[in-house]
């Protein structure tokens, strides 16, 4: 045997041993790998950070209780900073390097839509935590989502308007992705409720004064209510300007501002404002018979105890996504991605923070309008509107 | 619509434009002062506005009375402005203006990043200085805080004017702006003048931030857009002319408000920028720009 040849052979043996060792350790560990790319930092961090904390909190909890199917869960989370390009790279890495069996999140719609084709190709089930209806409409075989859509928010608002006999409205929408998308969806369904839009205005996401637009809306003859699809600080400024101009018809905000910081920023001007939101926001006010009450109260307690921060609906979306996946794995009895996908699609009667989920091959969201509660701000806090319809 | 409603509408747009425009004007003024003293277009100008608001919020949240918190915020912004000059601009002495501009962009990203860590990424508010009950004037409403913003901007302009025209130090700044070499020959410490300009600009920005936060709210990243709008206002009025800066800023705010009100809120930013392009096309140095470059 010549010397170089012996060297090559030794190397081959060494590589073979390493490969064997890795295979053995993989087989021993047998963790169920759950992947995620979330916007933990960056502009969407107020969505992504609670999602991240929620996933860690509950995966640790489940592992402490013995895991799923006798195996431990292993979380692989990447931070895409809200950048769809990065999310796409991480999606490829989750599939090819980490070999995850299921993915929870996608924080933003942009990141979700960038990642969806990769998981479709790899046939890995993907439960997104982003809002837009485009994620599940048209249905993609491997893509699901947990948050309500903006179309549902519009429908909930219009339902409430109709119940109050208000049919002539003004709209003022943000021009960011959220405001634009919801504005579009609202215009699509507004006709179904016999409501007409008298004035349709918009504002930039960073604008600091919306009185000109609101003045135009105020001057529309016969105005009965105003709807503000928007996100971030814009709606708080709209609400303040609304009060400044002395507009007295009811103001409706969107689920995009369903957090305490909106009430805080808008101050007394937020009084009597209505908005649709998930039950989680009013966990303690839900009537005792409400099927969602135990779930949302338990999640709220656990999250607030672990993080010391007030609960947000966004973390709730991650909770719903994680448990829909875990129940699917339990029902499937295996960590095979295709079987998990089939079981996610069969989710029925799942009680989450966002509502009661009944999925089907044609509905990869599985929520109906009852998932939204109409809230009204009274004395600086949320109260549930007890609707008569 | 009858005449009264039409006028109420017009006034409402004007109030909106003047409030927003006053802030643009102060940012543009900050740009101008630094540009005159050092030829640097300081894109960190918006960060001074952000610091004014955010530091006041943070310090007053710690239980310090609002006026003291505001004073502290201005002092801190001045410190940051001076440090920006001494640590970032001056070491690059002799570099071309483009390089210096890039340095200020880097500084603005740095300041924003630090603010994001030291404070947080949430939006914050300050209480209005004199309550939230709006005044009604011919059917239009205006917040007391808007009067604070406009009054504050006016006061700053008057004080600056007095400083430049009535004090030796102010005249030294003007001299250094007109001809740096000559100023140095007559014994003016131009390095000190530049540092002073950065400090004054920072103070103006911080005051603007404090005045406007009760209306517009603030967060670590409000500076970016304000810097752009202030820069546009400065260009419109004529870069290098303080009066032009104020005029340009106010005009930009008014055009935005009237554009949003009378034409289309979707295109209001577009309307403002088209107007700037037209002005610069007709008069490349802006409305009140210097007629010619005297420096050789």
Plain-language structure description:
The complex is a heterodimer of chains A (389) and B (296). Chain A is α/β, with parallel strands linked by helices. In chain A, 44% of the residues lie in helices and 17% in strands. Chain A has two domains: 32-149 and 293-368, Response regulator (Rossmann fold), CATH 3.40.50.2300; 151-284 and 372-384, Rossmann fold. Chain B is mainly alpha-helical. Chain B has a domain at 18-222. Chain B has a two-stranded antiparallel sheet with strand order 1-2. Chain B starts with a helix and ends in a 14-residue tail after the last helix. The interface between A and B is medium-sized, with 31 and 36 residues.
Mean pLDDT over all positions of chain B: 89
Compute the number of helices of chain A.
Answer: 12
Large-scale geometry of chain A: elongated
What is the distance, rounded to the nearest whole angstrom, between the alpha carbons of the first and last residues of chain A? Answer: 90 Å
Order of helices and strands of chain B: HHHHEEHHHHHHH
What is Rg of chain A?
24 Å
User: How many β-strand runs of chain B?
Assistant: 2
* N to C succession of SSEs of chain A: HEHEHEHEEHEHEHEHEHEHHHEEEE
Count helical runs of chain B: 11
The greatest interface between two protein chains, and residues involved on each side, is: A-B, 31 and 36 residues
The number of distinct structural domains of chain A comes to 2
Beta-strand content of chain A: 15-25%
CATH topology category name of the largest domain in chain A: Rossmann fold
Strand order of the largest sheet of chain A: 2-1-3-4-5
Which structural class should the secondary elements of chain B be placed in?
A: mainly alpha
The shape of chain B, in one word, is: globular
CATH class of the largest domain in chain A: Alpha Beta
Query: Largest sheet of chain A, if any?
Result: 5 strands, parallel
- Overall number of strands of chain A: 14
The parts of chain B where pLDDT drops under 50 for at least 5 residues are 292-296
Oligomeric state as shown: heterodimer
């Amino acid at each position: 045997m010549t010397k170089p040849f012996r060297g090559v052979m030794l190397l081959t043996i060494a590589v073979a041993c390493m490969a064997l060792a890795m295979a053995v350790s993989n087989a021993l560990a047998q963790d169920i790998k759950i992947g995620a790319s979330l916007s933990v930092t960056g502009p969407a961090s107020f969505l992504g950070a609670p999602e991240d904390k929620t996933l860690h909190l509950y995966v640790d909890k489940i592992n402490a209780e013995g895991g799923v199917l006798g195996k431990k869960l292993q979380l692989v989370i990447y931070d895409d900073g809200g950048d769809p390009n990065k999310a796409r790279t991480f999606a490829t890495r989750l599939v090819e390097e980490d070999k995850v069996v299921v993915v929870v999140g996608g924080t933003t719609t942009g990141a979700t839509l960038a990642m969806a084709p990769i998981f479709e190709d790899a046939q890995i089930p993907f439960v997104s935590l982003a809002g837009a209806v485009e994620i599940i409409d048209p249905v993609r075989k491997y893509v699901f989502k947990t948050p309500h859509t903006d179309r549902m928010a519009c429908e909930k608002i219009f339902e409430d308007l109709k119940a109050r006999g208000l049919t002539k409205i003004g709209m003022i929408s943000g021009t960011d992705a959220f405001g634009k998308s919801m504005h579009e969806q609202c215009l699509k369904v507004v006709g179904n409720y016999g409501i007409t839009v008298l004035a349709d205005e918009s504002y930039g996401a960073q604008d600091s004064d919306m009185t000109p637009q609101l003045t135009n809306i105020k001057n529309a003859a016969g105005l009965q209510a105003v709807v503000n699809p928007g996100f971030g600080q814009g709606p708080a400024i709209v609400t303040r300007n609304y009060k400044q101009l002395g507009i007295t018809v009811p103001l409706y905000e969107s689920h995009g501002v369903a957090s305490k910081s909106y009430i805080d920023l808008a101050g007394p001007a937020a009084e009597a404002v209505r908005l649709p939101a998930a039950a989680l926001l009013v966990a303690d006010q839900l009537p005792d018979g409400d099927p969602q009450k135990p779930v949302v109260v338990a999640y709220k307690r656990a999250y607030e105890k672990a993080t010391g921060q007030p609960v947000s609906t966004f973390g709730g979306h991650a909770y719903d996504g994680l448990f829909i996946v875990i129940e699917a794995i339990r029902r499937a009895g295996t960590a095979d991605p295709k079987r998990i996908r089939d079981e996610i699609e069969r989710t029925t009667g799942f009680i989450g923070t966002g509502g009661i989920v009944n999925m089907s091959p044609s509905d990869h969201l599985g929520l109906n309008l009852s998932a939204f509660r109409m809230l009204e701000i009274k004395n600086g806090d949320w109260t549930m509107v007890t609707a008569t319809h | 619509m009858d005449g009264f409603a039409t006028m109420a509408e017009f006034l409402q747009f004007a109030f909106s434009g003047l409030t927003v425009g006053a802030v643009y004007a102060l940012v543009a003024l900050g740009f101008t002062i630094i540009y005159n003293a050092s030829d640097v277009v300081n894109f960190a100008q918006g960060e001074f506005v952000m610091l004014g608001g955010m530091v006041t919020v943070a310090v007053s949240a710690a239980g310090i009375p609002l006026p003291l918190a505001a004073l502290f915020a201005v002092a801190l912004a001045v410190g940051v402005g001076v440090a920006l000059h001494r640590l970032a601009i001056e070491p690059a002495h002799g570099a071309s203006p483009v390089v210096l501009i890039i340095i200020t962009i880097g500084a603005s990203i740095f300041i924003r990043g630090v603010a994001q860590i030291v404070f947080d990424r949430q939006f914050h508010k300050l209480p209005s200085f004199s309550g939230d009950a709006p005044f009604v004037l011919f059917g239009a409403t205006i917040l007391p805080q808007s009067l604070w913003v406009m009054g504050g901007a006016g006061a700053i302009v008057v004080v600056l004017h007095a400083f430049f025209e009535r004090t030796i130090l102010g005249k030294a700044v003007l001299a250094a702006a007109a001809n740096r070499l000559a100023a140095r020959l007559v014994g003016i410490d131009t390095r000190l003048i530049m540092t002073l300009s950065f400090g004054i600009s920072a103070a103006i920005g911080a005051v603007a931030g404090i005045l406007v936060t009760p209306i517009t709210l603030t967060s670590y990243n409000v500076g970016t857009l304000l810097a752009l709008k202030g820069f546009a206002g400065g260009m419109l009025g004529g870069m290098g002319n303080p009066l032009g800066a104020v005029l340009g800023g106010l005009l930009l705010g008014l055009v935005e408000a009237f554009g949003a009100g009378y034409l289309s809120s979707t295109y209001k930013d577009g309307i403002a920028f088209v107007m700037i392009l037209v002005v610069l096309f007709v008069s490349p140095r802006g409305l009140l720009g210097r007629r010619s470059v005297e420096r050789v």
